[in-house]
Write a structure and sequence with these properties.
Length: 534
């Protein structure tokens, strides 16, 4: 290279370095991390309890996010304590509840939690068979229980009602509207499920405690309990022919595992861990939580979803008597959450809500049918099934992230099968959608919209383009459930002095009101839950 050319190259290099230096000097500085807060032992313990109760379901035990965002200190310490406190108190448009505004945290508690999420997440302890066996209690032995249903009682029309913050279940007679009994359960019970016979009702608390209630007793009573972990949200039973009422299964958030139990005593039989690799990037994940479970009607299997890894498990329990459980793994989509059956009970429809997707699993052909894009953060609960006048059988979900109902065609013979065929606009972000085979109405709550949380929205199945009707209540509305015959809709008014309002499905007029309930949330009619009607 000639000297002149070499000098030109060197000069250009020097200029480039100089310009880079200028660019770096002019670039905005990386935001500084806030200092790590200091908590007393008592503050830490209280923060840990509040976090597991209110926050871990969306953000994870290790604070790494799923339905909600990553809230590890690398993210939270980019914000001031005051900014975090305001988010915790007021909530966000993306679906996070305003814990202070809604009365479920005090101002001091939101201020404490702002500090708590700025420190490193403590590693929760493991929980194994020894701990489970020590927590297992049979309150009423099998041979001391009734041998037939209670005489003169329409027990299949009983409702189990979760009194979330009270840690108990109210069993209510759907005919008389009387509270028959309240039964202690795990804290912040998430769901109730029934055995295939309908006789037993099972609850699972966010503290990992499973409780079993006998509806043939008069009044119903608690017959067994066991703690399967430190954080859980899903439970179901064996429903396939020949295995009715034989087993139950709990899916835990922490430790990440599922536990198979005896169906008449809750004795823990087998623990299966779920730690593993994400389906798409094959990265190891230490916390793949079991988010939802349904019991197959086509095989002796449960369908379990692993939230963080995006895998659906078909768990065969048919050889459990010799200690063998086999799993079929189906890759779906990451951040799986709630889901339920289509009307045929062949296809499992589950929300991967952080990916704005509904995954469809064919439990007969044992494969993923399709990942379907919907609105922002679908949250179906178990979803709702009906026959659309134009598109035929559909399954629907509402959304955490926007006021939208998405309807998906579930008829495999329809050219539009497994696509969103219709959308309805809602006034607010929603948690649940509900209908019944005998109803012409579809009900949606608007629970997490701060301006319409007290409004129930009702659409007409036969007139899907017609504007919906709205019913306004004095308190926040959450979750709807039909009675056994499909003529009544039970709606929770969520408050520490809560109520259930019972509406006539045809007229939408109030028929009755049940008062004196503490934070009533989910309601589960025995027959509808037994038969997977939704």
């Amino acid at each position: 290279m000639k000297k002149k050319n070499l000098l030109s190259v060197l000069a250009g290099a020097v200029m480039a370095v100089g310009m880079a230096g200028v660019a770096m000097a002019n670039a905005p500085a990386a935001p500084a991390l806030q200092p790590e807060p200091t908590l007393t032992k008592e503050e830490f313990q209280k923060g840990q309890q509040i976090y597991f109760d209110r926050c871990s379901g969306c953000h994870g035990a290790l604070h790494k996010g799923a339905t909600g965002p990553d809230i590890t200190p690398a993210k939270t310490r980019l914000k001031t304590l005051d900014a975090l406190d305001k988010i915790l108190f007021n909530g966000t448009d993306g679906g996070m509840p305003g814990w202070g505004k809604s009365g479920f945290m005090t101002k001091d508690e939101t201020a404490l939690m702002a500090k708590y999420v700025q420190i490193e997440a403590p590693m929760p302890p493991e929980w194994g068979m020894k701990e489970m066996k020590s927590s297992w209690k049979v309150h009423v032995p099998v041979d001391k229980r009734p041998t037939e249903p209670p005489k003169g009682k329409n027990w299949q029309n009983y409702f189990g009602v979760v009194e979330r913050d009270k840690g108990q279940i109210a069993i209510i007679d759907g005919d008389t509207k009387k509270v028959l009994v309240t039964i202690p359960s795990g804290f912040a019970t998430h769901i109730l499920r029934t055995s295939m016979s309908g006789r037993y009702m099972f609850a699972i608390g966010r503290d990992g405690k499973a409780t079993m209630m006998d509806l043939w007793a008069d009044p119903p009573n608690l017959v067994a309990e066991v703690r399967t972990g430190l954080d859980a949200r899903s439970i179901d039973t064996s429903k396939y022919k020949g295995f009715e009422d034989k087993y139950a299964v709990v899916g835990d958030y922490w430790p990440p595992h599922y536990v198979i139990l005896k169906g008449d005593t809750l004795e823990p039989l087998k623990i299966v861990g779920t730690r593993g690799y994400t389906y798409d990037t094959n990265e190891y994940h230490p916390e793949p939580r079991v988010a939802s479970i349904v019991a197959s009607h086509h095989a002796p299997e449960w369908v379990l979803t692993l939230k963080e890894t995006g895998v659906v498990l078909l768990v065969d329990y048919s050889k459990l008597n010799v200690g063998t459980v086999t799993e079929t793994k189906i890759n779906a989509e990451r951040f799986l959450h709630d889901g339920g059956w289509d009307a045929s009970k062949r296809y499992f429809m589950v929300a991967a809500n952080a990916r704005d997707t509904i995954s469809v699993i064919d439990t007969v052909d044992r494969k993923l049918v399709k990942n379907i894009k919907t609105g922002t953060k679908p949250h179906p609960g178990r979803g709702a099934n009906w026959v659309d006048p134009e598109f035929g059988p559909v399954w629907a979900t509402v959304h955490l992230g926007e006021g939208l109902v998405s309807m998906i065609s579930t008829d495999p013979k329809n050219p539009k099968a497994w696509t969103v065929v219709r959308e309805w606009k809602l006034g607010g972000n929603s948690l649940f959608v509900k209908t019944h085979p005998k109803s012409k109405n579809v009900y949606c709550d608007n629970t997490i919209n701060p301006n319409k949380s007290n409004v129930l929205t009702v659409f007409n199945i036969d007139k899907p383009t017609e504007a919906p009707r709205e019913i306004t209540f004095a308190k926040k509305v959450v979750h709807m459930e039909y009675d056994k015959d499909g003529g009544e809709v039970w709606v929770s008014l969520w408050d520490k002095e809560g109520e259930i309002v019972i509406l006539d499905d045809k007229t939408l007029k109030e028929k009755a009101r049940i008062t004196g309930l503490n934070t009533p949330t989910g309601k589960f009619n025995v027959y509808n839950t037994q038969m997977d009607i939704y």
